[in-house]
């Protein structure tokens, strides 16, 4: 059974000394501030949420989405924290509901920080490009990577890249990277497992394997340190696989609430979803009378969106509190909203937004372009690892200094990581411009 006092310890990754606590500025609030001032967070302003490179300045970027998820997460954390503190008398240890809110809020703020350009299609583009490149390289060379290392790229995951950014790439000179608190890092990691779990372990496990992973082999020891510090339950002695930090369920719920509801609003503003359709989808949750309002249709949709989010926040917190014992024991493996009274309707919202927004030609065409852009960039830069031909030498010079490869080093895994670090860190605009230069479309 996990223990709240340990789950909330303010210990920072990579530091052993006690933190000097300033009045009114907790370690978890400092986590939030460090994230806001970081370069990877700023780059989210030009990364795809749903609509890539939008000309409509109302539509949310991934930066705005992250801020909104953070606000919802703060509310979820504080509401849950208020009750948990009463149940476990945590106030005698100095904890308050705001600590829960600040941890969840910081983790939510960072939840998409590792996503590559062009959204989830960008992740798949990197996977596909790696597989194609690796297959061609290995026709001439022996296996360059171990089975576990190769799985990191075959299943390239923005969540794992995010943990790498927070703990390794940012503030690279110090151990633990940004040195965030372990509760924030554990709550951030929605999928606390490595990319490859051996079949021999899976077939004997009663736990449901998460569909994604939360860290690469390069950061496995760092996550292990986080997990041990906060007391996560390990799923298997011979696999890097843990149960979630309880507050990770709230991070997931905040994200689910925002993209489910907000995609309807954005789809309406872009003209893909009619007012009547948006009203029907949102008001089954919001349940308010908007017929007498003199507001514009856009304003009515805003009201519906706000009320629907409020309803789902109350649903998610109650589900969490009802299942606290199972969550602490590691037995709970559902997403909170799957147990909501609105679960079926949320599925319907997902289906309709997928049909009318995600499958719209404007959105799909950008995703297709993302495959072309990232595949070319990955292949060109990956070829510089082993290819000494003139073009590869020139391409190598286009890598920023911090991504330069040690060509004498035999560690192929670290070399490929440098390439994925560079490409996944690009904004949509930067990746597009670099692609145009490589393709001879633009010489500016």
List keywords for this structure.
mainly alpha; single chain; 444 residues
Let me know the largest β-sheet.
Answer: none
Low-confidence stretches: none
Helix share, percent? 55-70%
Separation, N- and C-terminal Cα atoms: 59 Å
Number of helices: 20
The Cα radius of gyration reads 22 Å
* Proportion of residues in extended strands: under 5%
Structural class: mainly alpha
Q: What's the overall average pLDDT, rounded?
A: 90
* Total strand segments: 0
Please provide the ordered H/E string of secondary-structure elements: HHHHHHHHHHHHHHHHHHHH
Tertiary shape? globular
Structural commentary:
The protein has 444 residues and is an all-alpha fold. 58% of the residues lie in helices and 0% in strands. It contains 20 helices and no strands. The chain has helices at 4-7, 27-36, 39-42, 62-88, 97-109, 119-137, 147-154, 158-169, 182-188, 199-202, 220-230, 246-269, 275-286, 297-322, 324-329, 343-358, 361-382, 390-397, 412-424, 428-438. Helix 9 (182-188) packs across helix 11. It starts with a helix and ends in a 6-residue tail after the last helix. The model has no long low-confidence stretch (mean pLDDT 90).
């Amino acid at each position: 059974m996990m223990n709240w006092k340990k789950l909330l310890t303010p210990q920072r990754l990579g530091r052993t000394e006690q933190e000097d606590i300033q009045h009114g500025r907790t370690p978890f609030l400092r986590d939030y501030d460090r994230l806001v001032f970081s370069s990877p967070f700023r780059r989210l302003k030009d990364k795809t949420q749903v609509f890539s490179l939008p000309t409509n300045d109302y539509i949310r970027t991934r930066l705005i989405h992250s801020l909104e998820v953070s606000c919802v997460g703060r509310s979820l954390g504080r509401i849950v924290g208020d009750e948990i503190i009463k149940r476990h008398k945590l106030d005698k240890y100095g904890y308050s509901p705001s600590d829960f809110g600040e941890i969840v809020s910081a983790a939510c703020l960072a939840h998409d920080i590792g996503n590559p350009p062009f959204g989830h299609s960008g992740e798949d583009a990197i996977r596909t490009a790696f597989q194609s490149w690796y297959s061609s390289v290995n026709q001439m060379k022996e296996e360059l990577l171990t089975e576990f290392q190769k799985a990191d790229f075959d299943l390239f995951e923005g969540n794992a890249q995010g943990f790498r950014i927070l703990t390794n790439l940012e503030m690279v000179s110090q151990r633990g990277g940004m040195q965030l608190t372990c509760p924030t890092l554990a709550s951030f990691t929605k999928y606390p497992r490595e990319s490859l779990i051996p079949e021999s372990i899976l077939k004997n496990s009663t736990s449901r394997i998460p569909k994604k992973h939360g860290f690469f082999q390069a950061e496995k020891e760092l996550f292990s340190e986080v997990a041990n510090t906060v007391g996560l339950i390990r799923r298997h002695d011979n696999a890097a696989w843990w149960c979630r930090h309880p507050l990770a369920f709230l991070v997931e719920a905040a994200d689910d609430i925002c993209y489910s509801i907000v995609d309807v609003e954005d789809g309406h503003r872009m003209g893909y979803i009619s007012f009547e359709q948006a009203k029907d989808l949102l008001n089954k949750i919001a349940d308010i009378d908007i017929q007498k309002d003199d507001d514009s249709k856009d304003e009515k949709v805003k009201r519906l969106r706000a009320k629907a989010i409020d309803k789902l926040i109350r649903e998610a917190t109650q589900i969490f509190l009802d299942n606290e014992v199972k969550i602490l024991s590691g037995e709970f493996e559902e997403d909170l909203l799957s147990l909501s009274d609105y679960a079926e309707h949320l599925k319907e919202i997902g289906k309709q937004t997928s049909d009318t927004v995600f499958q719209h030609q404007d959105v799909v065409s950008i995703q297709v372009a993302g495959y072309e852009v990232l595949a070319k960039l990955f292949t060109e830069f990956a070829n510089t690892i082993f290819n000494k031909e003139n073009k590869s030498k020139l391409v190598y010079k286009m890598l920023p200094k911090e991504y330069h490869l040690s060509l004498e080093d035999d560690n192929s895994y670290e070399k490929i990581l440098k390439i994925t670090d560079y490409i996944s860190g690009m904004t949509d605009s930067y990746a597009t411009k670099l692609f145009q230069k490589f393709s001879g479309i633009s010489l500016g």
